[in-house]
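S.,

Sequence below, as promised.
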Amino acid sequence: MDVFEALKARRSIRKYLDLPVEWDKVGSVLEAGRLAPSSGNLQSWKFIVIRDINKKKLIAEACAQQYWMEQAPVHIVIVGVFAKYQRFFGDRGKDLYVIQDCAIAATQMMLAAHALGLGSCFVSAINEDKIGEIILIRGGARPLGVLTLGYPAEQPKMPLRYRLENIAYLETDAGRAYVHGYGPGRIADLDDTFTNWRFAERGIKYVKEAAKDIDRATTEKRKGFLGKLMEKTKRKKPT
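The prediction came back faster than expected:
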């Protein structure tokens, strides 16, 4: 699956079919997490795979009583090894880098799951102590979230998203530009830049779709013309 298709089509799934997930697919999802970038390439994460129904019930209870999680055939608890980050990067590594890295790994795992026809949902509302007891965490590590995994029993629509013009700016935060003395013209320049990009994007899409429509509409005509030409060539006597 094209990466942009996966980005646009992936959804958080909270309803799952009662079907087991093949181990090769679980392995592929874990591999996507393993390949994620990390601060200093420390790769200080652990992925704990849970299939036992009793443990899944306990995990759902420890995730703010989100009992829908029990439907998922597989839970993957994402654990960050905080001690290692603190040793290399101090408090910033412990308080920020480890969380960022585990979040990136979770994102790659969710995209891989979608590409494999699976559904997933990242649950961060967790009781760390209770989940730590369930999976027997030790060694300066903490659970940071649970990824549910299984075949989806729902197809949620894309939730509302901000337009790119509302969240991306050139050189400065346009929302605060007036405070720093920027005039309206500068903000207009930023808006015009993204507006032009959006029109260009739509234009490219329109041209591609138009080309497909033209090709479909003229295929039969081309076939008919070539057929008549071949027939005329066959009837023509050699001189």
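Residues 45 and 80 are 5 Å apart (CA to CA).

Coffee later?
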